[in-house]
Every structure is written in structure tokens, then in C-alpha cells.
């Protein structure tokens, strides 16, 4: 058995699908790291990928993961860095195959093992589960999934760290997964490297907090940080975070020397409370972490120490994310200039709404915002700003409906306002807005025993 | 007594879970945390966001981080992909909360 390392360094490479493409490359080349963690999946990403897979069975994963791997695999292989990524989406097998092809092209055949984690995809099993009495009630509304069963596009259970641990134990250098939790991608390497036990709840909670801290990439290393934001150095070269962890569950958040950004208690705290529910029970498939036990300490420049994390046993449920077809929406915009920019935009909104009503168009929702006045802070902004002197205001009006023709007709009612509505209007270069399909998210819980993760490790 | 904005004594970050926005409100200095606990109650925050949210407000305390976490239910016009809002993911409810004014003793240095 290999000796346990004294510390393990896990670098965050992507905080979401579409994150900065330079980050993973800089993470593996900018200094020592043991693992690269990349989180690709947001709540509705799975449904987009499912749609791609239904058109082409070889798709359904985060495609830009492949050119990225092509760029970093030589370095990764040379330095012995291992990768955990949920880029597999609804087709981890195809994703792993594409990575294998790239690896062979890079002459890494025989030198690289790819782990594939599946078993999260419930789409084909949905009717069976419903028939057996698993109602998959919506966690927010309490409604049973049968309400929208005929419109379901994808259904995935959130798997935790353990299947990823199994892949690493099987010798995988790159682990490609479907819907594994963001935190599990960081926790798994820690479990694997330090040999943490399945009931070591405090350690698992510490690893989960580590995962939560870096799962949004630079959002804990200076990005989107309000405190002293103008003096955060060199965001153009922002360093993505690295967890430097010890076997006792304590860890430091650091970044590569010479990179931009800032790692401060303030910034790490902002990330810890991001998307937080009840802080006493941060529930994952692996444990329940208590965020009120976290201790933070600035240990030096760009170095924050995290300790004290307590955890409790995992629940017997897994979260399930279901995506279903909801309807259509479209958003149109026009820009009005001084003088009376806000009043003109308001007048245009009234005229547009009257025309929609006169046409007999029915919408589930019509929402008007005045960008530059109240789009972000609503009535709080209106109370605070001098609205009569605004230099320009963007009228932004959106509609939502199950009725596609109604939404399409709406999109044709924006441009006419330029010539037949209030004056000093511009900003229509983008053309008519397009109706968009709305895919909605249905969160539910499922008995853990109903889900069997599957792990394969194959040599390239 | 003097009136100050939360912006003077706190920072914040917000995000979404479905149709709920969360705002983590963090004291800029540990000594400001008791002011937040005392003045920035769930009821006060609900009044602050009147007209912007359709559901109740919940508050959780994280004394270890000198932070409060607020859940603003019904804040996002259905949330996620359904929402027609510019801020469909509740990203800037954070600074909207920092507009709130509280009355503190004049001796509090800000």
C-alpha cells in the first residue's frame, strides 16, 4: 500500500460550463497540484444535454471538455495530476470515449486510465419508480411528478463522492461522471488520498466545505467579491483557487504564485454563504455539513485556513433533478434616450401592453423592467434615484406562455414601436427576439437504495 | 443615534435555489455582527423587499462567520429558466439588501 501523503492539493478548473477556458491550463501549469476538479453541471444543463443526445446518440456531454483535455492532457500525464469532472452530462460513456481518442492522438495510449461514473440517469426508469410508489414530489411545491410526467426531458439523481473514489481506487487518472455533486468532485480525491472512512462525518463534512469553497472557481479568489473590489489585484489574470488539505480535515485555500485575484476571509466567506440554505444542515449524498462550525483564519497573503468543520451522518435520500418542458418565452428590448428617457420607456410599455391585449394574446406572465432605473433593485432603486434625469433607459419586456404563437406574435410587436411609439428610441440592431423553449427544473428526493452507481475504469 | 446603510457595515453575496433567492449578509468587522443580529430581522428584511418578493423571509445565523443568511421565497418570478427577470438567479439581491438603513448609537464607528 502506498504511503498516505501529508497534504493534497486540489485545483478548481471550471466553476460552471462556460467558465474561463484559460483557468484549467493555468492550474495545471502554474505550480504543483495533485488533482484538477472541474464542475460543469448546473440545474438545467442536463436537459440541454439530453436534447443534444436525443438528436445524436454520441452527444450529451460538455463538448468543450474535449479540446480542453487535448490542451492539458500532456501536462497532466507528465506531472501525474488526476482529474475529476462531471463533464459527462447525460452521456459519460461517449465523453470518456472522446477523451480516450484525444489521449491516443497525443500518444498517451497505455499511459492513461479513464474512469466513468454512471447510474445517475433515471430517465428510462422513471415509470417504474413512479409505479412502485416513488412519487418524486417537487420539493418546493409538493406536487407529485405525475403532474408533468409526459413533459419530462431528463431525470438524474445526484451521486456523491464515493463512486468517484471507487474510480480513483481503480487507478483512474481522469474520472468522467454524470450528475455527481459539485462538492463530491473535491471530496472524492480527499477520501481517496487520505483513506477517510465512510462514517468519518467530520472529515467528510470538511471535504464537502472544501468542495463548496472552490466549486464556483474564482468566486472565492477575488471574483465577484464586493469587499474592496476596486483594489483586488490583476483580475485579468485571476488565480483560480486551490485546496491545500491535510489528513485531519483542515485545509487552506490558496492560489498559484504570481496569479491575480485575492484570497481573503471576506471573499471565502462570501463564497461559503453563496446558494446557502439552512447553514446547520448542508445536505449532500455523503454527509450533512454544519456551516456554523467553520472557522476561517487569514494565514498569510492569499492564504485562508479553514478548520473546525463538524458533520453528521448522511440522510437516506438522494436529491433528484428532473427537467421538464414548461412552455415558451421571449424578451424584447428598446433603448430610450434623454430627455424623459424613463417616461418614454414607460409610455412605450403601456402602448405595447395595450396592443397585446387588443390582439387578444394571453400570457402566463408579462414582466417589464426599466434597465438603468429599476431592473435590478426594483422599487428600492426607484425610491433612491432621480428618475427624471436618467440619460437613457432600456425598456426590457418579457412574456411567457404555453402558447407558442402568442409568444411569436409578441416578438413582432417590439420593432414597430421604433417608428410608431414614443421618440428618441434606438438599440434594435439585434433584430427580432426569438421565442425560447422554457425547460423547468423539478427538484425531488428519492430513496438512496433505488440508485446504483456504476463505475468502470478503462485503459486508453 | 445615527442612521447608517448596511453597506457601511456589511457585505453580501446572493444566489438562487429555484424560486428562492438567498442573501448572505456578512459583517465587515466582527463588532458589527451584533448590530446585524439585532436590527436585520426576517420581518425587517421582508418589509425592505416588499413588492419584490411574494413569499416569506427566513433568517439563519452564522456567528462563526459573522454572517446572517436570508432566504427570500418567491423572489425570482419562478426562478431559473422560467424567470423573465434580468436577475433571474438573484445575483444582485445582495446589494439591494445593503440599501437597508438601520439606526445605531452615534458611538458606533463606521
Key terms:
heterodimer, A: 460 residues, alpha+beta, Alpha-Beta Plaits, ten-stranded mixed beta sheet, 13 helices, B: 110 residues, four-stranded antiparallel beta sheet, 3 helices, 17% helix
In short:
The complex is a heterodimer of chains A (460) and B (110). Helix content of chain A is 29%, strand content 25%.
Overview of the molecule:
The complex is a heterodimer of chains A (460) and B (110). By secondary structure, chain A is α+β, with helices and mostly antiparallel strands. Chain A has 2 domains: 8-120 and 158-315, no CATH class; 326-442, 2-Layer Sandwich (Alpha-Beta Plaits). Helices cover 29% and strands 25% of the residues of chain A. Chain A has 13 helices and 19 strands. In chain A, strands 11-12-8-7-1-2-3-6-4-19 form a 10-stranded mixed beta sheet, sandwiched between helices. In chain A, strands 5, 14, 15, 16, 17 and 18 form a 6-stranded antiparallel beta sheet that branches. In chain A, a hairpin with a 2-residue loop joins strand 11 and strand 12. In chain A, helix 1 packs parallel to helix 3 and helix 6 packs across helix 7. The longest helix of chain A is centred in the C-terminal third of the chain and has 18 residues, at 341-358. Chain A starts with 7 loop residues before the first strand and ends with a strand. In chain A, 52% of the residues are buried. Chain B is α+β, with helices and mostly antiparallel strands and 110 residues long. Chain B is 17% helix and 33% strand. Chain B contains 3 helices and 6 strands; from the N terminus they run E-E-E-H-H-E-E-H-E. Chain B has helices spanning 33-39, 42-48, 93-97; strands at 2-5, 10-17, 20-27, 57-62, 67-72, 101-104. In chain B, the strands form 2 sheets. Chain B has a 4-stranded antiparallel beta sheet. In chain B, strands 1-6 form a two-stranded antiparallel ribbon. In chain B, strand 2 and strand 3 (20-27) form a beta hairpin. The relative contact order of chain B is 0.31.
Amino acid at each position: 500500500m502506498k504511503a498516505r501523503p501529508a497534504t493534497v492539493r486540489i485545483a478548481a478548473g471550471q466553476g460552471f460550463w462556460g467558465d474561463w477556458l484559460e483557468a484549467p491550463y493555468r492550474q495545471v501549469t502554474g505550480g504543483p497540484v495533485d488533482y484538477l476538479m472541474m464542475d460543469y453541471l448546473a440545474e438545467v444543463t442536463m436537459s440541454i444535454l439530453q436534447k443534444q443526445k436525443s438528436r445524436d446518440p454520441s452527444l450529451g456531454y460538455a463538448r468543450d471538455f474535449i479540446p480542453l483535455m487535448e490542451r492539458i492532457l500532456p501536462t497532466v500525464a507528465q506531472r501525474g495530476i488526476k482529474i475529476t469532472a462531471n463533464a459527462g452530462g447525460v452521456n459519460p460513456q461517449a465523453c470518456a470515449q472522446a477523451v480516450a481518442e484525444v489521449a491516443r492522438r497525443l500518444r498517451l495510449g497505455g499511459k492513461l486510465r479513464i474512469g466513468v461514473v454512471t447510474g445517475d440517469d433515471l430517465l428510462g426508469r422513471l415509470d417504474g419508480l413512479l409505479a412502485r410508489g416513488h412519487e418524486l414530489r417537487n420539493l418546493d411545491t409538493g406536487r407529485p411528478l405525475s403532474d408533468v410526467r409526459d413533459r419530462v426531458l431528463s431525470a438524474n439523481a445526484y451521486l456523491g463522492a464515493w463512486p468517484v473514489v471507487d474510480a480513483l481506487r481503480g487507478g483512474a487518472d481522469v474520472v468522467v461522471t454524470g450528475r455527481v455533486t459539485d462538492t463530491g468532485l473535491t471530496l472524492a480525491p480527499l477520501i481517496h488520498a487520505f483513506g477517510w472512512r465512510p462514517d468519518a462525518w467530520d472529515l467528510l463534512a470538511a471535504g464537502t466545505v472544501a468542495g463548496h469553497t472552490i466549486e464556483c472557481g474564482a468566486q472565492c479568489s477575488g471574483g465577484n467579491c464586493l469587499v474592496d473590489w476596486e483594489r483586488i489585484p490583476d483580475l485579468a489574470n485571476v488565480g483560480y483557487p486551490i485546496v491545500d488539505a491535510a489528513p485531519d480535515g483542515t485545509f487552506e485555500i490558496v492560489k498559484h504564485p504570481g496569479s491575480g485575484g485575492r484570497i481573503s476571509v471576506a471573499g471565502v466567506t462570501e463564497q461559503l454563504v453563496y446558494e446557502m440554505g439552512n447553514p446547520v444542515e448542508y445536505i449532500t449524498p455523503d454527509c450533512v455539513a454544519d456551516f456554523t462550525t467553520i472557522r476561517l483564519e487569514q494565514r498569510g497573503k492569499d492564504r485562508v485556513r479553514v478548520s473546525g468543520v463538524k458533520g453528521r451522518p448522511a440522510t437516506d435520500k438522494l436529491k433528484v433533478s428532473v427537467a421538464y418542458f414548461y412552455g415558451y418565452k421571449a424578451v424584447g428590448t428598446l433603448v430610450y434616450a434623454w430627455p424623459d428617457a424613463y417616461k418614454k420607456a414607460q409610455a412605450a410599455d403601456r402602448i405595447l401592453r395595450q396592443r397585446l391585449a387588443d390582439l387578444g394574446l394571453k400570457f402566463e406572465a408579462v414582466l417589464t423592467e426599466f434597465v438603468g432605473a429599476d431592473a435590478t433593485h426594483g422599487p428600492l432603486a426607484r425610491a433612491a434615484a432621480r428618475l427624471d434625469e436618467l440619460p437613457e433607459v432600456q425598456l426590457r419586456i418579457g412574456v411567457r406562455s404555453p402558447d407558442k404563437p402568442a409568444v411569436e406574435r409578441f416578438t413582432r410587436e417590439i420593432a414597430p414601436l421604433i417608428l410608431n411609439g414614443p421618440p428618441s428610441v434606438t438599440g434594435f440592431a439585434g433584430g427580432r427576439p426569438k421565442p425560447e423553449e422554457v425547460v423547468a427544473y423539478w427538484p425531488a428526493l428519492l430513496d438512496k437504495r433505488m440508485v446504483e452507481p456504476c463505475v468502470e475504469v478503462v485503459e486508453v | 443615534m445615527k442612521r447608517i446603510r448596511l453597506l457601511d457595515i456589511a457585505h453580501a453575496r446572493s444566489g438562487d435555489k429555484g424560486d428562492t433567492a438567498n442573501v448572505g449578509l456578512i459583517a465587515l468587522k466582527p463588532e458589527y455582527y451584533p448590530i446585524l443580529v439585532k436590527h436585520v430581522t426576517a420581518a425587517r428584511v421582508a418589509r425592505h423587499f416588499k413588492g419584490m418578493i411574494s413569499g416569506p423571509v427566513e433568517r439563519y445565523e452564522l456567528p462563526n462567520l459573522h454572517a446572517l443568511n436570508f432566504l427570500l421565497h418567491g423572489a425570482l418570478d419562478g426562478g431559473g429558466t422560467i424567470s423573465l427577470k434580468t436577475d433571474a438567479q438573484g445575483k444582485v439581491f445582495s446589494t439591494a439588501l445593503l440599501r437597508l438603513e438601520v439606526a445605531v448609537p452615534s458611538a458606533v464607528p463606521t
